[in-house]
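Supplementary Methods, section 5.1.

A reviewer requested that the exact input to the structure prediction be made available. We therefore reproduce it here, unchanged from the version used in the analyses.
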Amino acid sequence: MLEQDTRKSLGSVGLPGCAHTIKMKKLSSESKTRVALSDLIAPDAINDFEGGVIVVLHDERLMRVTNCQLWIIEHKQINETDSDFDDYRTELLGFLVEATIHNSSAAATLASTI
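The structure derived from this sequence is encoded token-by-token as follows.
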């Protein structure tokens, strides 16, 4: 693999360019994980793998690059979703807007009673 391709792969999993030339032993555990994931997906190994792989992610870029099945962990339950990440993100934003409106109304009501 060419250096340019390697750097592109490392960047696609969120490893900043300044960390691309640091020795593995000096990287943080998070950065080492990103390097390992980059190594897995570079030849699309994770997408072609027919078995199961469980990866807990909080990084949108990693979710998109691995073309993974989305499972939601909330209220002490794990649930598979039929939607893709964009649908889930839209749903979350809707909940945030609703919560913000609800909390703003409650704050205004409280303020008017003081």
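Residues 22 and 109 are 55 Å apart (CA to CA). These observations are discussed further in the main text.
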